[in-house]
Amino acid sequence: MSQDIRDAFFEQMHLLAREDASVVFLTADMGAFALEAFRRELPGRYINVGVAEQNMISVAAGLALSGKKVFVHSIIPFVTARCYEQISVDLSVMKLPVVVVGMGAGLTYAGDGPTHHAVHDIALMRSLPDFTVFSPCDALSTRAACRMAHSAKGPVYVRLEKGILPQVYNDQDDMALGMKQVRRGQDVLIAATSNMTHQAVLVADVLKAKGIAAGVVDVLRLKPFNENLWHPMCRGVRLIVTLEEHSLVGGLGSIISECHGLRPSCPVMMMGVKDRHSVEPLSRELLQEQHGLSVGAIVAGIEQALDQGVDNGSGIKR
Q1: How far is CA 110 from the centre of its chain?
Q2: Which helix (H) or strand (E) holds 160?
Q3: Residues 6 or more apart from 261 whose CB is under 8 A from it?
Q4: Which residues pair with 160 in a beta bridge?
Q5: Residue 230: its pLDDT value, please?
Q6: Which CATH architecture has domain 178-317?
């Protein structure tokens, strides 16, 4: 399905709202073309609270306590970090079924600088008890994340890309599993999420031409992480690589490293946004290069790790 990820989410939410009169949508003065049909058809359930994200979370909590299924929406740093206390106290502590929808995962808003870069949100949101965290990579998984968020009994965070990305999932995939093995390979297993899954596929193609068989796994649900499905995928590989457009601190790499902490199998090399702010007004591609997330840099890093014999049993490579 070739569709903008943002449109896919909001169209699916609109369909759910038609069927479920309890669905209410709150936005902090952030619109989208795909939201217009919802606003026109269900004006009483579309509420723009203005540039007041902290208040939006508390309003959502009140609506949830009155039996509503609430979706809240803004750019990721504004709907997570800016109102983290309200999310923690009003949603997490009370286990309320509010869906926090964050727009612009990773370096989507590259040129807008650190105020708009969404490279700490996974670390923030997965640390909150009872939160489920989704990070879809294509339109189909985005629609599935919306449906699963709607049916969840507790709070949910969905981090969304912008734009049209290649299809990874199909209608036969069981997306409730939270991940999918996109490619198989016995040398390297690359775990990626969001837009980096597509980068991982390109990397696997380059490695294949070099005689290195690389598998690729897309992680749709970051929390709870499906360890029972993940561990069998790792058997026999020489190196596990985590790839994400998120800080190396607290993201997918941390999730998988924690997962392997008590079950050492092979080294884990984490590739992501370095532990610093990117203040330069650069394009997304140039920022990816700075953080070693271009296809060439990823391939070089994997080759170097394999050449250094990281398959000798243990160690975390960063």
Answers
A1: 17
A2: strand 156-160
A3: none
A4: 103
A5: 95
A6: 3-Layer(aba) Sandwich (3.40)
Alpha carbon 54 to its chain centroid, in Å, reads 22
How confident is the model over 151-195, as pLDDT tens digits?
999 999 999 999 999 999 999 999 999 999 999 999 999 999 999
What is the predicted pLDDT for the residue at 30? 87
The pLDDT, as a whole number, for residue 315 is 40
Which whole-number Å values give the CA distances from 213 to 6, 190, 302, in the listed order?
33, 11, 11
- Tokens 């597509």: give the residue: 198
CB 73 within 8 A of CB 60: no
Sorted by where each begins, the domain ranges of the chain are 5-160, 178-317
Question: Tokens at residue 264, please?
Answer: 């050492």
Tell me the mean pLDDT in the region 67-92. Answer: 98
Give the whole-angstrom CA distance, residue 159 versus residue 44: 26
CA angle 89, 90, 94 (to 5 degrees): 90
Residue 152 three-state SS: coil
Token digits of residue 4: 């903008």
Distance CA 194, CA 161 (A): 7
pLDDT of residue 101: 98
Sign of the alpha-carbon dihedral angle for 148, 177, 138, 259: positive
* Identical fold between 5-160 and 178-317: yes
Say yes or no to pLDDT of 310 above 80. Answer: no
Task: Give CATH for domain 5-160.
Answer: 3.40.50.970
Strand partners, 102: 74, 159
**With contact defined as beta carbons under 8 Å apart, do 298 and 203 qualify?**
yes
11-64 pLDDT per residue, tens: 999 999 999 999 999 999 988 888 999 999 999 999 999 999 999 999 999 999
> Which residues lie below 8 Å from residue 136, measured CB to CB, with a gap of 6+?
5, 142, 144, 145, 158, 160, 161, 194, 220
Token readout for 160 is 């969304």
Tokens representing residue 74 in the block? 């803004």
d(CA 269, CA 190): 9
